[in-house]
Amino acid sequence: MPEQRLLGLDVGERRIGVALSDALGMLASPLTTINANPRPQALTMIARLVREHEVQVIVVGLPLTLRGEIGPQAEQTRTFAQELEQHVGLPIMLFDERYTTTVAEQLLREMGVKPEKRKQQIDQVAASIILQDYLDHMRNGGEGGYMEQEE
């Protein structure tokens, strides 16, 4: 299997959680959290991480509604993904991220992370869950689940 590093993003209004896969594209790990604003600065920081870690694909969590539909938040994320694609020139995959922040919060709580530290880590942990879900999805043949590629 060729080496392929992927970057996972959990895009929020204030913060963007960032996760990185290993070189084989098997395992996702939290990397960092960056400020979502100002937008040009956020795009530049993501582009720097892409170059630094030799990323080939970016996976952006798409916050579908609980009914699996595209709502206002998902539209904002799509717009961000389009801007990012123009900025970095890499394929961007949008992947269903429902419940990831809840799962990340629960995981950090179970690990005994103090509430004030949780806030600092929640976005990058959520990004790693999104990316790991995507990696598992692709390893299992890519069947089922919601996914789209930015055009």
What would you say this structure looks like, in words?
- By secondary structure, the protein is α/β, with parallel strands linked by helices.
- The chain is 44% helix and 25% strand.
- The protein is built from four helices and six strands; from the N terminus they run E-E-E-H-E-H-E-H-H-E.
- It has helices at 39-52, 72-88, 100-110, 115-139, and strands at 5-11, 15-21, 28-35, 55-62, 92-96, 147-149.
- The protein has a six-stranded mixed β-sheet, with helices on both faces.
- Helix 1 (39-52) crosses helix 2 and helix 3 packs across helix 4.
- The mean pLDDT is 89.
The helix fraction, in percent, is 40-55%
State the shape. globular
What amount of the residues lies in strands?
Answer: 25-35%
Instruction: Report the major sheet.
Output: 6 strands, mixed
Number of E-type strands: 6
Radius of gyration: 14 Å
Mean pLDDT: 89
Low-confidence stretches: none
Find the structural class using helix and strand composition: alpha/beta
* SSE order, one letter for each helix or strand: EEEHEHEHHE
Span from first to last CA?
A: 26 Å
The strands making up the biggest β-sheet line up spatially as 3-2-1-4-5-6
Number of helices: 4
